[in-house]
Amino acid sequence: MSTDIPSMLSPRPSVQWFTPGRIGIYVFLISAALFFLLPLYVMGVTSIKPMVEIREGNIFQFPLAMTFEPWAQAWSSACTGLQCNGISVGFINSVQILLPSLVLSIFLGSINGYALAFWKVRWGHWAFSVLMLGAFIPYQVMMYPLVRMFAWADIFQSITNIVLVHTIFGMPIMTLLFKNYYGGLPPELFKAARIDGGGFWRIYFQLMVPMSLPIFVVATIMQTTGIWNDFILGLIFAGREHYPMTVQLNNIINSTQGEKIYNVNMAATLLTSLVPLAVYFVSGRWFVRGIAAGAVKG
Amino acid sequence: MKLPTRRPAWSAHAALIPMGTTVLVAYIAGILWTVRISFTSSKMLPKSDWVGLKQYEVLFASDRWATDMVNVALFGVTFITGAMVLGFLLAVFIDQKVRFEGVFRTLYLFSYSLSFVATGVIWQWMFNPTLGIQQSLRSWGWENARFDWITSQDMAIYCVVIAVLWHSAGLVMAILLAGLRGVDEEIAKAAQIEGIPRWRYYLSIVLPQMGASLGTCLVLLAVAVIKVFDAVVAMTNGGPGDATDVPTKFIMDNLFERQNIGLASAASTTMLITVLIIIAPLMYARSRSEKNA
Fold first, then answer.
1. Secondary structure (3-state) at A177
2. Rg of chain B on CA atoms, in Å
3. What is the pLDDT of residues A113-161, one digit of tens each?
4. What is the pLDDT of residues B215-238, one digit of tens each?
5. B31 touches chain A (CB under 8 A)
6. Which of A111, A191, A246, B198 could make a disulfide contact with A231, Cβ separation 3.0–4.6 Å?
7. How far apart are CA A252 and CA A246, in angstroms?
8. What is the mean pLDDT of residues B43-52?
9. pTM (two decimals)
10. Nearest CA in chain B to A297
């Protein structure tokens, strides 16, 4: 990772500029960058255009009369069906869902990974194999039974419910992440701690947690974007009162009656995307590391 | 002397109870329950009768399910091919010792951090048949330009493909770029001395060495195809007609709107079996390569 910065900054005298080949490379790279950026740009300019300009103009055109009214509306007065409280309600719900889900799923994932990597619990490895298989199975396969189970436990469609569901479906990747990390540590470390008389929890809290802070950061990044961006689980398990931002967004976009207010829709989309975009741009290479870590074994 | 590691680690067992419970209750019991319901005549509430394969007969006689299977296959093939080709090209071009490499990488991957709902909404707007790209083309002089794929029975599915490609191509780029960096640079020099063209070098020498990275990408993309739901709901809601409907949406509709739990469970079980058929060989290959390693 540390090699990235020097290779970016140091000039490479061996590479010749202005050959047709070099120009071709940059033309391709810049066109590709436009493909990725243009939709974001279109969204941005649409969100600050008055509706008159949207109806008459061109989606790529910069607004003539810029307005931030759509952002204000999207935040506090856009309608989802009959209610018109904007997407701020969804924002608060998403935060309420995110924080406990983060703590619970990462804590359990790290414990599972630690126990599987160092402690010889034979049934644990069987359970882990099933869990890995579970990562490939579409949510729909387990969905109805889960609905019935949570209804039976009398917590269906509550914050507790959606937090548990995120923990259940986040468990395969979180466990894998930590198991791979701890599995890569030298086993002598653990043996020495055992000979010193360390127990399960003491070794975990005093040795493993401090040593694995980087992987906790990676896990936090992965789970923050994953849980924030979830739609289907929030739709079914959170309940109408606690719909996360993505569900609210979809309701604003696709169930408005009468004329569609595109500028407000785009502002609402951008507002919903702010958290994952901020995580992405702030975390930089850590985000990529999460992809790599999750991709090690698929 | 007895090593301390031999001591029965009851706290290790205890710590794994949440995982064991999750696996047993949510995954194993959940899956078995769904399979069981698929053999009943359950409508709104689950029943415990036994109707054999009746739900499966209904399922496979259903036009909508047949359309959904064709749609997801078409989506899967075009999306995976597109993402692999685009991702590979991006990785190769970035690997040409370009300036601002970090900037390009960052730009190609940011869309991957967005939700599928946002992705669907963005592209629904781009593809808007009256106010979207079509109108821009017209205002730039192509007065008869037509770009209304999203309302077309035949082309709407490709709108979803483009949107999801935009979302996920960067992922392939990131994984393949890491793979490319692992290829020995001496080979590149040797190939250059031999006068082998660059494209030949990448296709015939580099590509075959990147099996692991390519496999990882394939698995991740295949999982995305199987799970595709949010993007479709946000972008087209399955329409026009059933043109972009997918099996996951068929199941959700039958579970929560049409109150046809038996049929939904038969569809879920069919998906489960399909997934197992696809990934069982993968898991087997992986466990073998682990034993050999």
1. helix
2. 24
3. 999 999 988 899 999 999 988 888 999 999 999 999 999 999 999 999 9
4. 888 888 988 999 999 999 999 998
5. yes
6. A246
7. 10
8. 86
9. 0.90
10. B216
Contact at CB, B123 and A201, closer than 8 angstroms: no
pLDDT digits (tens, 9 = 90+) for A61-117: 888 888 898 999 899 888 877 778 889 999 999 999 999 999 999 999 999 999 999
Q: Which residues contact A143 (CB under 8 A, 6 or more apart)?
A: A236, B251, B255, B268
Residues of B in contact with A44 (CB under 8 A): none
Q: A83 — phi, psi (to 5°)? A: -90, 140
Domains of chain B: 42-292 (1.10.3720.10)
What distances in angstroms separate CA B286 from CA B72, B212, B215, B230, one per listed residue? 26, 11, 11, 30
Q: Is there a single domain that holds both residue A115 and residue A59?
A: no
Q: What domain range is A176 assigned to?
A: 90-240+266-295
Residues of A in contact with B25 (CB under 8 A): 149
The enclosing domain of A221 has a CATH number of: 1.10.3720.10
pLDDT at A3 over 70: no
The answer on A118 and A22 residing in a single domain is no
Total domain count, chain A: 2
Contact status, residue B57 vs residue B267, Cβ threshold 8 Å: no
